[in-house]
């Protein structure tokens, strides 16, 4: 009985979260008058808030931009960080401890501290105002965390698998691609999802490096849309805009939450 009582605060917090999330969805399908009069569906479901977002507010363009940024950056991060993490987790070399310390130290650097140097560098390279700029920023800033997390997964893979592959004639690169990468799939999925959510919800880097309205992300669009709806008194539209940004990552998490949990568990036990 005492063990069950320990979970009461967790259950209460879960109930509180479900109620808030449910109310936000219902409010997004209502009207501002219905929200303030506490009669959300007096006139039935109202989809005009979502229709206005995707027709008048160009939400589909911002959605497309965020998808391009997020998918491209996640692929680029794995492409750069996975080989580095493999070396850090599997190979012994002089100065390895120093390199590990540098990666860990890089994770602790505040984003604001590197924003101005990065922006200055991209100005000198004449890369400002393009989609590529923000993709590169996301790749550079997420490599330390990704290398740190993946190195534990690569270290947990039995050495005998690589030795067997070498006997069968596989070179180091082929062994890495054909043997090691599939074995590290839980870790790759886990770190990709974390990177996906961080990039999708990023505001600071998008504000600085995607200053062209045509390259805005959905997070930047949300800020301007909420400001416009607030000035117009359209609070139902604010709920709709918030749900539009939140639901993609929430649905993604529901589908692959078990893989994330499995990946974290493997890294914690064997890493």
TrEMBL record:
Organism classification: Bacteria, Bacillati, Bacillota, Bacilli, Bacillales
Specify where it is mainly localized. Answer: membrane
- CDD domains with a match to the protein in the record: TM_PBP2
Query: Which keywords does this Swiss-Prot/TrEMBL entry list?
Result: Cell membrane, Membrane, Transmembrane, Transmembrane helix, Transport
Tree of life domain: Bacteria
**What range(s) does the ABC transmembrane type-1 domain occupy?**
63-256
- Its membrane topology: Multi-pass membrane protein
PROSITE patterns per record: ABC_TM1
**Compartment annotation:** Cell membrane
Q: Where are the transmembrane segments?
A: 7-26, 67-89, 101-125, 131-155, 176-200, 235-256
Q: Which PANTHER family match?
A: INNER MEMBRANE ABC TRANSPORTER PERMEASE PROTEIN YCJP, MALTOSE TRANSPORT SYSTEM PERMEASE-RELATED
Return the similarity comment: Belongs to the binding-protein-dependent transport system permease family.
Matching Pfam families, A to Z? BPD_transp_1
**What is the official name of this protein in its record?**
Carbohydrate ABC transporter permease
Q: Report the source organism.
A: Paenibacillus yanchengensis
